[in-house]
Amino acid sequence: ADSPATDMNAPEAEVWLPTLLTDTPQQGFELAVGMARRAVKTAQPDVEVLKSLRPGYATDAGSLIDVSGVAATWFATIAAANDYWRE
Amino acid sequence: ADSPATDMNAPEAEVWLPTLLTDTPQQGFELAVGMARRAVKTAQPDVEVLKSLRPGYATDAGSLIDVSGVAATWFATIAAANDYWRE
Amino acid sequence: ADSPATDMNAPEAEVWLPTLLTDTPQQGFELAVGMARRAVKTAQPDVEVLKSLRPGYATDAGSLIDVSGVAATWFATIAAANDYWRE
Amino acid sequence: ADSPATDMNAPEAEVWLPTLLTDTPQQGFELAVGMARRAVKTAQPDVEVLKSLRPGYATDAGSLIDVSGVAATWFATIAAANDYWRE
Amino acid sequence: ADSPATDMNAPEAEVWLPTLLTDTPQQGFELAVGMARRAVKTAQPDVEVLKSLRPGYATDAGSLIDVSGVAATWFATIAAANDYWRE
Amino acid sequence: ADSPATDMNAPEAEVWLPTLLTDTPQQGFELAVGMARRAVKTAQPDVEVLKSLRPGYATDAGSLIDVSGVAATWFATIAAANDYWRE
């Protein structure tokens, strides 16, 4: 299907997201954190810039609260994908 | 159905969103980023203005965190559309 | 049913939302943007005021990011209503 | 069941929310706006104070965008309750 | 299961949340408000401090809008738990 | 599956999230608070820094409201995982 995803020159040709399925909730949590960071990199690909921002947001309560909220949204999708690791 | 969508003069007549279905989670992630940017353009169609704003938000931790949260919300819908690529 | 919806004097008697169903995802996206704007008008019905605010938020990265997040939430509901236009 | 809802002295004994079911999506939208306003009143019951705040938020783009996002979250629940008014 | 919930010394040993099920949508709304306030107390258990903050947020439009958005997120879960009080 | 979760050096090798299933809604609420805090620690692992930030956000209404919203998003996923503790 010719969706915007295919015609947008994907910044990284590497396959970093083969699946949403993980063996455990904890891996799902780490995948959520990984996807959250990937989404940040779509707006700021320069890792050095991102590192330079860390001292700021990592000592700002508001930012840290927002980081958790963003992780929660990514995790919600991954948990649903894995049927909440119920069985 | 005569919903507000049809009577609103769609800014771009081009078909940019034929489907929410993608082959892989990574394409789904890229589609989410693409839809997030499209939604920004409904409020600011001028790409030059958007480019001028980039140095600002791309070096602001709060904005980058929010970008990830927005991508997460778009991705949640696309992932559900694709039944989380579970096949 | 006598819910607050019926006893609240609906600002506009016009029928602007006959259905959440659209033929395509792109129409669903436009309906989401339309509903997002309608919700703004429930708090500020004066279109001239809204127009006067545009230069401000349309050149503010934070606002534009938030606009996309709001559209994403409206779109999530419309996409579910249309079973993600899967068939 | 003795949940916090029953032992919390409900601010208004009136029955204002008999059901989430509405006949049309538009009524569902109005119910969402009504519930959003009710939630504000749980934090600020004084309607005069709320009226005094209107000129401020109704001319502030950021607040208006947030109002739409909040309405979207209430609407998502009401739409699901009504099975998206599909039939 | 030895999840963080059990090994974290629960701030209040009292059983305040026996169930998410309520008889009516309005009780569900009140439970949502109750849970939202409980979540605040996990970060600030001192009720006197919370009371001292009220005059501030209760006269701030942005805070009141955010309060409604938070209640909407709690309510969404409670409504789903109660199958939207459909029958 | 070689997802970013596995190739990212997990900050803590300890198993802190064996399951999303809890016996009661209240334990689910505490797990949500625990996961929210864990997500904060992915951005700021230094507990002393986190403690130093507490006096600030714990007396700031905006932050406390946001804390509740974040907990609500984590709780939504946990409640779904536990089928809302319906039986």
Q: Quick gist of this model?
A:
Six copies of one chain form a homohexamer. By secondary structure, chain A is mainly α. Helices cover 63% and strands 0% of the residues of chain A.
SSE order and pairing:
6 copies of one chain form a homohexamer.
Chain A: H1 4-7, H2 25-43, H3 47-57, H4 61-81
Notes on the structure:
The structure is a homohexamer of 87-residue chains. Chain A has 87 residues and is an all-alpha fold. Chain A has a domain at 32-87. In chain A, 63% of the residues lie in helices and 0% in strands. Chain A has four helices and no strands. Chain A has helices spanning 4-7, 25-43, 47-57, 61-81. In chain A, α2 (25-43) packs across α4. Chain A starts with a helix and ends in a 6-residue tail after the last helix. Mean pLDDT of chain A is 90; it is low at 1-7. Chains in contact: A-B, A-F, B-C, C-D, D-E, E-F. The interface between B and C is large, with 42 and 43 residues.
Order of helices and strands of chain A: HHHH
Q: Overall mean pLDDT score of chain A?
A: 90
Number of helices of chain A: 4
Hey, which two chains have the biggest interface? B-C, 42 and 43 residues
List keywords for this structure.
homohexamer; 87 residues; mainly alpha; 4 helices; 63% helix; 0% strand; flat; disordered N terminus
